[in-house]
Each structure stands twice: as C-alpha cells, then as structure tokens.
Design brief:
The protein is of the alpha+beta class. About 35% of the residues lie in helices and about 20% in strands. It has 16 helices and 18 strands. The strands form four sheets. Strands 1-5-6-13-12-11-7-10 form an eight-stranded mixed beta sheet. Helix 1 crosses helix 4 and helix 6 packs antiparallel against helix 7.
Length: about 500
C-alpha cells in the first residue's frame, strides 16, 4: 500500500522582501553607528515610534508611485479602526509631536532609524520593506533649521568617508509653485499636470535639458533618436510654458516671474546659501533648481544628497550613483492634528542604498568578521569541561561556542566550524586533559586539510596549523590566533 502523499509547505520569500545575513547586518550596524554619532553631535535625540499607526494619522500623503491609493499595508482592528504599517518615519513623528506637544521642548530635535513598508509593485532595487534613518527639527520656522540639516548631512557623509564624492542639493517648493502658477497651473484642478511637470524636472540629471523639454511637451521615447523603447507621456505644455520652466534649470534661472510664492522661495534659497557659505559648507551644499522631491507634503526648502561617483547601469553605461537621501520642510504635517500650524524640517537617509554605495567604494564591510571559536566535543562525558572553556573565552570577550550537534564524527564538527567561519577550534581529548593541555587548530591556515578527517585516529595523525598549549594559556593563545588574522 502506497504511503499517503505528505503535503508540505513550500518555503518561499514574499516578493519585494529580503533576508539579510551576518555580514550585511554587521556592515549596516557600523554605518548606523557613524550616522548616530553625527546626529547626536548636532544635539538630536533618539526616538522610536511603532511600525503601526492609525491609517488616518498617515493622511493623504501616500507614495505617489505605481499604486497611490494602495501605497500602505492596512488591516482593520477588532474595534473596526483601520491600522497601517508606516510608509515613512515622518508621519509617525508628526503624530508623536502632536500627541505630546505641550510636554516636549521646542524646537524638538529627534532622530529615528527603522523599517518602513510600501505596498508597491516590487522590482530591481525596489523593496516593500526598507530602512530609513531620519533627523527632524519640529517647531523652528527659520530656514536656519533647513541649512543646519543640510550641513549635518554633509558632515554625516564626510564621517562615512565620502569626502569629495557627494553634493547636497537644495531647492524650494515655493519657487517651483511660483513657476507653475506663472504658467497657469495653479489650483487644485491642475494638480495632476503639476505632478507631471515636477516629474519631468526631476529627470533633468538623467535626460538633460532636451529630455525635459520633451517630457514637458508631448512626451519622450526611451530612445529618442530611433523613437523606440518605452514612451513616457508628457505634461502637454505649450512652447512658452515649457521655456519658462526650462529657464529655471539653466544658468541665470527663471526671470520675469512676479508672484509671492516665487519671491518667498527665492529669498529663502538666498538665505540658505548665505548661511552654508558662512559656515564653510559652500563646496558641499549647493542650490540646484532641479531638486523636486516626490512627497506632496513639502512646503518650502527641499534637499537631496547625491553621490557623484560613477557606476555602471543595467546596460553597462557609466552613470552617477545618485541620491541616497533627501528631505525638506513640511510645515503642514504636524498641524493636521492641531489648530495652529507647526513648522518642521527633516532629512531621511535610505540606509540600504547608502550601504550599497559605501560597499561599492570599499568603505563598508571590507573588514572580515570572525566567526565564533568552536570548542570541539571529544568525549561525550566531559561536556561540563568544554562548557567551562567556552565560559572562560566569553568572559575574556572572545566570541565562542561549544559544538552542540552529534559529537561522534569529528570531521562533521570541523566542517561545522568551517561553515561558521570559526578562526580556530579548541580540542581536548583524554590525552590532552591528562597533560593539562589543549590543542588549538588555526582553521584559516589549515581548514582544507580537515575535510577528510572522520575519526579521532585520523585526527591524531594529521594536525595542520595546530599547536599545543597549557590549559591555563587558552585565552592568551586564542587571542594570538585572532590577532594574527586581524580579528583582535
């Protein structure tokens, strides 16, 4: 009689998500610690908000990507309240400040690092879960707060070893709004066309002035010369409208625009330029009219950190690495919860993207990570002795473990240590115990020779990169092995 077929679950990772191993996690921790030190140097304090917020607290500011009405992961609680996973760290901050407004010192300066979630179509380099590291000042109406955020970003990238390989670009949404108003795209009825124009401007670094001209007009082919590839529909502006927008992106900037928004934005940019120059950051923080930033809640200065070194794109062409973070002023977000407006400005780093950039340059994750020293189990009845050795190593600050699998096969124990990345193993059989000694095998020097060893007899015959020491010298000799391979 045939056995019933067993229905087993299929192990599979959901699309748009990723598992992360020790090497990546260690490199990320190293980077986050550097960022944290700079943020705290500027007087920002740590804050953690939960992954889940009431959906209405996130407001209408969903990501305007492929699925703007489905940008968040949501579910209904048992009290019929809708909850959502946060899609950024700014909306939860706004809720926190509004909820504790009277108790907080203002301006309130905080930093937050954590996972955010986007219910979007996943693709290359586009994940549904990713980490951000934000810093925000809430309650400061002056653009000095915006200038300070930009200077702090410059110091952060310098601290990460990116000196001379980035620029912090600054623009102002009021300037953009002023230009759009001047070409007749003010008012709610033109919101869709305004967004198309802003997206066209945002492509300036990639497609140049002529590419933006096409996107402002009828549209642009992916390969303009051959009129082939994907076609992006344009904003439908006429020639005069397009030229007014394009003037903003060229030397001298837009002229002849006479409205309050444009004047206010231009004045704020001039003040930021003056402040960063006085503080010695003019070579790193620059006014750039092509900066747009996608989220609709920005109300004033907007900024972007762009890495300027070249990498190859998916077609092998040299391109700038590009943005690793951005932010801006959002004076209306906290005010949604209160009767009065609350000024705020902040910056968000894309942790994975910045880590990828640092790894590309060899500035992150280049130092080898030592696995644990593994104490082998040579005699089943001496587990307490082996645990004592492990405890001594751990007490000395050395990462260590005792082999907890089936100790019968010594070769398997060695293979386990190899897979764990152990720099060395500690061996003490009955002979070593009687002599008051231990054997230490340097696996980095002799790992390959251990693959064929299957029992104690073979082990005693072949001891590559292995030496004896007094049991009392265990910690000292293990440290010597670690130092030899720069794991000290």
């Amino acid at each position: 009689m045939a056995k019933d077929k067993i229905n087993r679950l299929k192990a599979r990772l959901p699309r748009g998500l990723a598992d992360r191993g020790e090497t990546e996690l260690a490199a990320t921790r190293e980077m986050l610690e550097t960022i944290r030190r700079v943020y705290e140097l500027y007087g920002f304090e740590a804050l953690e908000t939960p992954f889940i917020e009431y959906t209405d607290a996130l407001g209408k500011f969903l990501p305007d990507q492929d699925r703007p009405n489905e940008g968040v992961f949501s579910f209904q609680d048992d009290d019929e309240q809708w909850l959502s996973l946060r899609y950024d760290l700014t909306a939860p901050l706004a809720r926190h400040v509004a909820e504790h407004f009277d108790a907080l010192a203002k301006p309130f300066r905080s930093y937050r690092a954590g996972w955010v979630f986007r219910n979007e179509k996943p693709g290359p380099g586009r994940f549904r879960q990713f980490m951000q590291f934000d810093a925000d000042t809430v309650g400061a109406p002056t653009v000095a707060a915006d200038a300070e955020i930009c200077m702090m970003m410059a110091d952060t990238l310098d601290a990460l070893g990116l000196n001379g390989q980035y620029v912090i670009k600054v623009n102002n949404r009021k300037v953009l709004d002023g230009v759009l108003e001047a070409i007749g795209l003010g008012g709610e009825e033109n919101a869709g066309r305004r967004l198309t124009v802003l997206r066209a401007i945002d492509k300036f670094d990639k497609v140049g002035i002529e590419g933006v001209r096409d996107l402002l007009g009828e549209g642009r082919w992916e390969n303009p010369a051959a009129k082939s590839g994907d076609f992006t529909k344009g904003a439908g502006l006429d020639g005069a409208q397009s030229e007014m927008v394009l003037a903003m992106l060229q030397p001298g900037g837009a002229s002849g625009i006479d409205n309050a928004a444009f004047a206010a934005g231009s004045a704020e940019l001039a003040e930021i330029g003056s402040l960063v120059a006085a503080a010695g950051y003019a070579d790193r923080v620059k006014i750039d009219p092509s900066v747009v930033r996608g989220l609709e809640y920005y109300t004033g200065p907007v900024f972007e950190a762009e890495l300027t070194f070249e990498v190859k794109d998916e077609k092998g062409r040299p391109v700038r690495f590009g943005s690793v973070g951005g932010g801006g002023r959002y004076d209306g977000l906290v005010g949604r919860f209160r009767s009065e407006p609350v000024p705020a400005t902040g910056f968000s780093i894309g942790v994975s993207r910045l880590a990828a950039a640092l790894t590309t340059l060899g500035k992150l994750g280049s130092k080898a990570i030592a696995g644990p020293v593994v104490v082998l189990v040579m005699d089943r009845d001496r587990v307490a002795d082996y645990m004592t050795m492990v405890s001594r190593l751990r007490s000395a600050g050395i990462r260590a473990e005792m082999y907890l699998g089936n100790p019968k096969n010594i070769g398997n124990q060695m293979k386990y240590a190899d897979k764990r990345g152990a720099p060395c193993v500690v061996i003490q059989g009955s002979n070593e115990r009687e002599a008051g000694e231990v054997q230490i095998k340097d696996l980095i020097e002799g790992a390959k020779a251990a693959e064929a060893i299957t029992d104690n007899a073979e082990w005693r015959e072949a001891r590559p990169a292995q030496f004896s020491c007094r049991e009392s010298e265990l910690v000292e000799k293990v440290r010597e092995v670690l130092a030899r391979h720069d794991f000290g």
